[in-house]
């Protein structure tokens, strides 16, 4: 069973300076959703942004320990345009 803070720390380790919120969507420790706002996403496609987030979690995705991670990713500029909702 994984903890949202563990996932958050892994993402922050790969994308320092990011704003990361992670929630356990089912309470079972294997289905999560994350919102990541990162300067590293500037000029990148959504697919490229998601690849950057999934990269530090590959071990847990491959083992099935992390079964699902729904992502919402934004550059700081994109987030600002959305009004930081």
TrEMBL record:
InterPro entries, per the entry: BolA (IPR002634), BolA-like_sf (IPR036065), BolA/IbaG_stress_morph_reg (IPR050961)
Sequence similarity: Belongs to the BolA/IbaG family.
Protein name: BolA family transcriptional regulator
Top-level division of the source organism's lineage: Bacteria
A family per Pfam: BolA
